[in-house]
Amino acid sequence: MACARVPLDEQQVTEPGPLGKERTLPALHPERAEDRCFVPYKPPPEEASPAEVEEFLERAKFITEDLEWLLALPHDKFWCQVVFDESLQRCLDSYLHHAPRGLDLAALPSSPAVADTQRSVHKAVFLTFLRMATHKESKERFITPAVFGEIIYENFLFDIPKILDLCVLFGKGNSQLLHKMIENVFTQQPSYYSDLDETVPTVLQVFDTILDKCGLQCEGAAAMEPMKLNAHKQPTAMTMSQQDLADLIAYLCDSTTTIHAFLDIFPAACSSFYSHGFISRLTSFYETAVPDLEKAVRKRNFDHKSLQDDLWKRLSHSCRKMVEMTHLLLHHTCLQPILEGDETRTSYLLQGVESAWDSVGRRKPQIQSKTSSSLLSNQGAVGGATAAAASGGFKAPEVREPEGAEGAVCPVSGAELESLLSCIRDLLPDLGEGFLLACLQEYDYNSELVINNILEDRLAPNLDKLDRAMPRKGESAKELLNDKQHIEDQRARYQAYETVVDEVIIEPGDSSSAAYDLDDYDDEYDDTYDMNQVGANDLDGDTLLNRRPFTIPQVLRKGKVEEEEEGEEEDQFVQDPALLRERAEARRAAMQQRKGIRPERPSNVAGRPKGQGQTLETFLDRRKKEANKSRVSNHNRRTMADRKRNKGMIPS
Question: Where are the transmembrane segments (predicted)?
């Protein structure tokens, strides 16, 4: 009998031998394994005939029964069977290789019997691997951790490809169990980390293989590697066969889904992938291969529309997994170390953000700048706080309730409060506005201190009890109606319109724009409008009918008139611009003559040919043009644009 509180690898058992005599053997011994044949797994048939369905059900039933028998064995017998039964390992490996993945499940037969049987096999395989990854089942049933790590490593019970398949097959719904299982395997046998480090280049080779099949190369690869002699004969995504394209996209989909599942379940592996430049290789592959594959799927003529839809779905799924892989790697290798750093680093980053705001002219809320400056002064900038944090003596500043807090109005305006909430939610989007409002009230509306304490998990006890997703329902309807702060904010804006000046006396040498801050924007326009007083001399009694004669609407006109106008419109669809200008000038002269306005002398800046002398009119016209040009120069336009930008009329 096995001794209690002794690890399995040190136990000795006494049992009858082949000839009936008792013998003593180690608890882990090949002769203690049962003679049982585990059949390999085959996936459900896609186009199922009754005979194929029956064969699958029978084989899956054998596998389920055998694995359930295995799981029911005692601790020592289970491990003897696992270590010394090769047919068991072939059965488990066959399931990892051939079990349908997420997107493959849709192609399975819709038979309820097939679905139920597949779920039973799936569950039995997962429970078997889960028990194989557990070195201690109870106080009496356990294996020495070092020996356990040697057993699973030397007997190939686990390896990196198997772990990758476990993640993609069982990750959905079992991520926490899988994380503990894989973490225990890596903890008890650190050699798996070195194996992972050696596996990453092989994973990267997947992307190179796909590029080679498409006749492509990553950016920079062409300069490093010589071109192959048959490179011009290499098929592309547009010229390869439909089956090759389908296999290539399925290979890409399976690879990206597997890698993402592994990194998502076991984030400790992100550092190994990151150290091999996985992000840069992945982005280069995405930019090089994805456009060609998308073009091939969209524009090629497929035998069946369902095949095109399936390929597009798998390619889109692959693109999404590549993006999510990049996010995982950046989060766990770049962002997570910053978030887990001390308070000095967080304050330093926030101070950098504030400096960036100041550099572009964005105004911080006054309450925030006041409290943040006092906080930074208390911390002693960067050096003093670093020393205090390293010595363990740094403490968050004590927050005291302001005097007369009960019934006091909010010290910040509504717009500033929304700005504070927006600032915090940009960094912590998962938190509810109700919870953030409570934090701001607790910490005197200091958004920097709120962010710092949330990241450091050092909130006040009364805030820790709140639901962090609490919506903004702390304000009653009465408080909202009584809040007239928005009226006060608008009062100063409209006070500028209270004074109406009928007559303004301008002293000699003063300009109206300088005296009354008139920001007229003089944009560039044609010289004609500088010299012709368009509309300036209109008579007060002029009516709309004098400016534009009455015309009969087209729908009320007679047929003959309509035909004449249609013919005229067809003949004059494209007219000479010079002719249009002459007609416009004639209409303008006729209107001025009808109103009694003296027509203004036309401008003549060209004058006579050089050497014949110029008239006084030409000299005056040239001087007037030069004066107008200087008034609307580029410098003046830029000045006016700056004034508008400073007043918030146009975005900066």
Answer: none
- Token pair for residue 266? 């076991």
φ/ψ of residue 516, rounded to 5: -120, 20
Amino acid at 611: G
Give the CA diameter of the chain: 140
CA distance between the termini of the chain: 83
What does 235-257 look like in DSSP terms, one character per residue? --TTTS-HHHHHHHHHHHHHHHH
Burial (CB count within 10 angstroms: exposed 0-12, middle 13-18, buried 19+), residue 427: middle
CA dihedral of residues 61, 63, 66, 70 (deg, nearest 10): -130
Q: How many CB atoms lie within 10 A of CB 463?
A: 17
**243-297 tens-digit pLDDT:** 999 999 999 999 999 999 999 999 999 999 999 999 999 999 999 999 999 999 9
* Inter-residue contact 347 to 375 (CB < 8 Å): yes
Torsion over CA of 52, 53, 59 and 61, rounded to 10 degrees?
-170
Question: What are the tens digits of pLDDT across the range 597-607?
Answer: 776 677 777 77
Q: What is the pTM of this model?
A: 0.54
Looking at 483-532, list the stretches that DSSP marks H as alpha helix, in order from N- to C-terminal side.
485-495, 512-516, 528-531
Query: Closest Cα to residue 212, out of 283, 275, 292?
Result: 292
